[in-house]
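Let's sit down with a protein and look at its sequence and fold side by side. Go ahead whenever you are ready, and we will take it from there.
>
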Amino acid sequence: MTARPISLIMLVLGFLFLTASPLAQVKSEVTVIRSETTNGVLIVYARLGEKPIELQCNDGLTQCVRPQPATYLMVELPKGQGVYDCANVRLYKQSEDLEKGNYLGEYCLER
């Protein structure tokens, strides 16, 4: 009789683990160096630690905002979420609370 409750607990814990892990978002600090628009694509040149990265978005979309050179919080979205067919990220102005309207824009991460 004790096997059934343990199995049920293991099943529930497994389900929670499998459903929660894709929702986990990676947060990183990035420093924007400069940006430019080429053929309708905004390209943002930034550094993730010491590694150079590019963020791209379609100029003219509401979510495509040209960030000023500064340090931002970058949040990587789970696969399949976001505007673009790539690794989608969102930039936020530096703050402890992401929900305080500090959202800047959404970009395709080119490593």
Q: What stands out?
A: The longest helix spans residues 3-20. The beta strands are 26-38, 41-48, 51-58, 71-76, 88-93, 103-110. DSSP finds one helix and six strands in the chain.
